[in-house]
Amino acid sequence: MTWQYTPFVFPLLVAAAIAGGIAIYAWQRRPALGVVPFTLLMLSVAAWSLIYALRLVSADLPTKLFWAKCRYLAIVVVPPSWLAFVLQYTGRGNWLTRRNVAILAIVPVTTILLAWTNDFHYLFWSEVGVEQVSTLVVWAANHGPGFWVYAAYTYLLLFVSTVMLVQALVRSPRLYRLQVVLLLFGALAPLMADLISTYDLIPFPLDLAPYAFAVTGLAVAWGMFRFRLFDIVPVARSAVVDSMSGGVLVLDGQNRVVDINPAAGRVIGRPASEIVGRPFSQLLADRSDLRERYLDVTEAHSEITLGEGRGRRSYDLRISPLNDRRGNLIGRLIVLNDITERQRAETSLMSQKQLFESLVAIARATAKHPSLGATLQSALNMAAALTGAEHGNLFLLDGTGVVTHNVVARDEDAAALQEEGVSDVVVGGLAGWVAQHRQPALVYDTSRDDRWQELPGIPHLARSALAIPIVSGSAVLGVLTLTHSEPSHFTSEHAYLLQASGDQMTMAVRSAQMYDEQRRLADRQTTLYEALRTVGAHLDSDTIAHAAAEAIARLTNWPAVAICLPDDKQSHLVVRAVAGALSPAEGWRIPIA
Asked: Which of 582, 361, 431, 396 is nearest to 506 (CA)?
């Protein structure tokens, strides 16, 4: 074993050191996308450079041949590992199935076998030797068909990788293109160097590919530290940012849009190709309020509305600063999340809460007073207060449709609601229509609705009205009507509120009617009792007793009735009056035990 000195070995050692250091650095970034194949690539490059340096300093053929065979243990790993890295980097990692990896390994494994068994078939090197170039003994060999098969395999994989990187360069946002450019440079430099050495395009006695890998290592190292190569890659950006439901915009230090996801494009109403590169102020040309408020703000969180008419949407806006590793501001991140549906849900929930509170208020108001008149007045006043009505009335009907009670929300309306005017309204007006059809009536403009009938004595003009029936089973108990001097004052929400409170009003009216009926019966019984007591004061006890006995016998159909009263000493009961079969017993005395 003979050795020789040459300064050409130092660039190879530098390339091996750089590649080894990059492999260690990349391995620490696990499980970032592409780290495993890239680490394997750099370790292979480091081994290739180091083994080539050992072959270069060897001066005899057997030693050079040994290192030449060893070199292919590292060389054959470079093309497939580079392809695997590019596949993962460009979002095609699912191509790396076990089947495809096994297919990719066929040529490298065959190449190693051909290289180490070349002495038996000469399919890889048809002739090997050394030659003297100045003071340096270099490797010289003629390649066999096995080598050219491997060369074609290598160029094919590098070509496919380059095409995918070019596609990534075209499709990636401007923010990520420098990463792809560095990777393209790192791939093309060794490829060109290998082509020059393999086909002797430039007379040079050494293999230039390992030296080119030193340049590749430096480019990749710069990309790692300058552009955070394994922290943010285009495929990761596509998988995360493009799939976000919220809009994302990235602005540079000059307030230009350098990146945007599809969701933000839909919010703005333009494709990303028309937005990237434009000043942010141009996107807010139609919204001077937003431009003045957020153009130079580095951090903000608020809610904004965009669009017009039915396309109007609400968004949660967040603006965050983007700083470099030194803390210097290099741009801003804008995130827009559509909160329209959330706001609608909150509004609906609030409406339901208000409806519930209103129903409770109506129920309390109608149940507060037991009398019918007070109940009707409370229900009408509460309905007017909840809907903002200026005037109103409530008619109570009997089974034939005749008004039995009517109350008003304002005292000045009472004089106009005389019996004749009320009858006209109930028969031909809005209240009559509601009673007949048993459904609410919402009138946005009374001047355009034939159902509306003005009473001549009403001192105000009604331009909008709302009427609901008070129904119990199949009977219409009454009609509640509310009015306002402005058109379209009442809404469907008002109608829904009053319709939902109809059951409470019905129960309150029924309860008040029963209360009034019981009170009338009680009054009648009291009157009858007083009348009987007054009459009894002018009759003797025997006359009253005989009349009572005969009345009881007649009403009950009992065969015999006797009325006994105690004597003055309270020692005996004396039969004072009899009816029926006990007539002879009158005057009997029965001892009190």
From this structure: 396
Instruction: Indicate whether 366 and 502 sit together in one domain.
Output: yes
Both tokens assigned to 574: 């004396």
Count of CB atoms situated within 10 Å of the CB of 192: 14
Of 446, 452, 430, the C-alpha closest to 486 is 446
Report d(CA 271, CA 265) in Å as an integer: 5
Model confidence pLDDT, tens digit, residues 296-323: 888 888 888 887 777 788 888 899 888 7
Q: Residues 315, 419: one domain?
A: no
Domain extent for 79: 9-235
- Asked if 584 and 570 count as a contact pair (C-beta separation under 8 A), the reply is no
Are 480 and 377 in contact by the 8 Å Cβ rule? The answer is no
Query: What is the Cα 398 distance to its own chain's centre?
Result: 53
235 within 8 A of 90, measured Cβ to Cβ: yes
The 10s digit of each residue's pLDDT in 370-383 is 566 777 777 777 77
d(CA 441, CA 583): 73
Could you tell me whether strands 247-252 and 257-260 are parallel, antiparallel, or unpaired per DSSP bridges? antiparallel
Unique residue bearing structure tokens 């491997």: 150
pTM of the model: 0.49
Using an 8 Å Cβ cutoff, are 34 and 89 in contact? Answer: yes
If DSSP codes are grouped into helix, strand and coil, which group holds residue 313?
Answer: strand
The DSSP secondary-structure symbol of 279 reads: B
